[in-house]
Specification:
Blueprint: H1 5-20, H2 22-36, H3 43-53, H4 59-70, H5 73-102, E1 109-112, H6 138-151, E2 155-158, H7 167-176, E3 181-186, H8 193-202, E4 205-210, H9 215-222, H10 226-240, E5 244-250, H11 255-258, H12 261-269, E6 274-279, H13 295-311, E7 315-318, E8 336-339, E9 345-346, E10 353-354, H14 363-367, H15 370-378, H16 395-405, E11 408-409, H17 418-423, H18 426-440, H19 448-454
Parallel strand pairs: 1-2, 1-8, 2-3, 3-4, 4-5, 5-6, 6-7
Antiparallel strand pairs: 8-9, 10-11
Helix pairs in contact: 1-2, 1-5, 2-3, 7-8, 8-10, 13-18, 15-16
The structure holds iron/sulfur cluster.
Iron/sulfur cluster binds near residues 348, 388 and 390.
């Protein structure tokens, strides 16, 4: 059913009030959003926000104030519809209806590579394995977004290659789809004043800057001068009131630096509203398996992330160690999937296998392709959600899924057999398993109670046969802001 246009008008009006005086209007605005969320999809988020708003020193309270002081008012007004109403609320209801209707995963976000071309050559970069020549035609990206919104997908993320090689066309997509939100992972080197102004004008496009630590660590992996380019780009976006964050790959050589309080504090000081951590995955023939973080380093990041969530005013995520908030792996269209620059539909940016190409099929056909259906049936890949990944934590799962589905390698330069890929993560998975189990089963862990319920829960939150329904965790237990 199409939403009444009056709802959008009311929400924008409420957003204007909040922007004018957040301290007064935030509690009132929250009340309005709650009343519109009839199914109470985000009930735990509201509860957490109520607690936050009462304490001016709370890190999430400071985070909210940073949003209002860092992001341009006209962008916030647009985001009240595209992000809050569409991506956070309407998306869930539409997707769940379509999951039932089509019996497959329907994602919250789609990651697309507009181009494989990049102006840098970073050590161990998985994107380099695709070659440099492929690019997604504009019409194909447009088709993905059109079909995606029909299914309930309002979030589109660009990676690459360097997506800003095609920045004019990305701006055009943002202009054509004001109902959606867009984000690009970028090395920052192609951001200039004119582009920062365009980002402000469209108001629904943010950037996640790839950065590997301070100057020495970043330039070691990404090349001399890259760090300074990122810092300059952050300054340009902050001056224009554009939302941005950082994206950091932690590995065996930089974990002390990027896992330090000083690093996160500096990113927040530069204006980052969010920070996404990825661990190094040895994808491709040029991968450097020695860069995989050790079990001790991964545990260190686990504890740092949980400490930061109580203390730092930024939305921080660690994609592997935060599996318990999403009930395991989010790939294969469960929450997201990846379309590479050649159009191959892969379950995840790190899983370079596919059965279909988006140039030859509909979005729905891609979601129903054999490898995606293997994910749909197999998730979660481990009942311990601190071991979510079918490649890094459960390599036998990926081997079996690729073999059963008959998916082909999508790496254009040197196709990598799945046995070769998974052999590189076997040792890391064996080292992490006992550590993850110890943490998961530790009764002193703050989330222990909900974990023992999660053991009896399927990836979609429904109870396993051996679990009484009334003890199963509600889907809101996946709400990261409630931590
Ligand atoms: S396949 Fe692994 S890396 Fe990809 S979303 Fe799932 S857990 Fe994360």
């Amino acid at each position: 059913m199409k939403r009444n246009a009056m709802v959008d008008v009311m929400v924008k009006k409420a957003a204007r009030e909040v922007i004018k005086n957040p301290d007064k209007a935030l509690p009132r605005g929250l009340k309005l959003v709650e009343s519109l969320d009839r199914k109470k999809v985000n009930a735990r988020t509201y509860e957490a926000l109520h607690t936050v708003l009462d304490d001016p020193d709370n890190n999430w309270n400071i985070f909210l104030h940073n949003i209002f002081s860092n992001v341009a008012p006209e962008s916030l007004e647009k985001l009240s519809v595209s992000l809050v109403l569409n991506a956070a609320m309407e998306s869930y209801n539409k997707r769940m209806e379509n999951v039932k209707k089509y019996d497959c995963n329907i994602p919250w976000a789609i990651l697309m590579d507009p181009t494989a071309a990049c102006n840098l050559k970073c050590t161990g970069c998985w994107a380099a394995e695709y070659g440099k020549n492929a690019s997604l035609p504009y019409d194909v990206m447009e088709k993905v977004i059109r079909e995606g919104t029909e299914l309930g997908v309002y979030t589109y993320i660009f990676s690459g290659g360097e997506p800003l090689v095609r920045k004019e066309e990305l701006i055009q997509l943002c202009d054509s789809h004001p109902e959606c939100i867009f984000l690009a992972f970028t090395n920052g080197t192609l951001v200039d004043e004119a582009f920062a102004k365009e980002l402000r004008r469209v108001g629904n496009f943010g950037l996640a800057f790839s950065i590997e630590g301070f100057e020495e660590e970043t330039d070691m992996r990404r090349g001399a001068g890259t760090y300074q380019a990122v810092i300059r780009a952050m300054d340009l976006l902050k001056a224009e009131g554009v939302a941005f964050g950082f994206s950091t790959c932690y590995h065996s050589k930089n974990v002390d630096c990027v896992g330090s309080d000083a690093y996160v504090d500096f990113m927040i000081e530069k204006g980052c509203l969010f920070g996404w951590y990825f661990t190094y995955i040895p994808v491709g023939v040029d991968a450097v398996p020695e860069l995989i973080a050790t079990a001790e380093q991964r545990e260190f990041m686990y504890h740092q992330m949980r400490k930061w969530r109580q203390t730092k005013p930024a939305f921080l995520l660690d994609f592997w160690n935060d599996g318990e908030y999403t009930l395991g792996c989010i790939a294969g269209g469960r929450n997201y999937f990846h379309i590479n620059a050649a159009g191959e539909c892969e379950p995840c940016a790190f899983i370079h296998y596919a059965n279909v190409n988006i140039k030859d099929c509909s979005l729905l056909e891609a979601l129903q392709s054999p490898l995606f259906m293997e994910y749909h049936r197999g998730q979660p890949f481990n009942q311990n959600h601190l071991r979510p990944c079918p490649l890094l934590d459960n390599p036998h799962c990926l081997r079996e899924m690729v073999e059963r589905s008959g998916a082909h390698s999508t790496e254009m330069l040197s196709p990598e057999p799945v046995e070769q890929l998974t052999s590189k993560t076997q040792a890391a998975s064996e080292a992490w398993g006992p550590v993850a189990d110890r943490i998961w089963e530790d009764p002193n862990e703050p989330k222990y109670a909900s974990r023992s319920r999660l053991y009896h829960q399927k990836a979609d939150g429904s109870p396993m046969e051996d679990s009484p329904e009334d003890t199963a965790a509600a889907p809101e237990d996946t709400d990261i802001s409630a931590n």
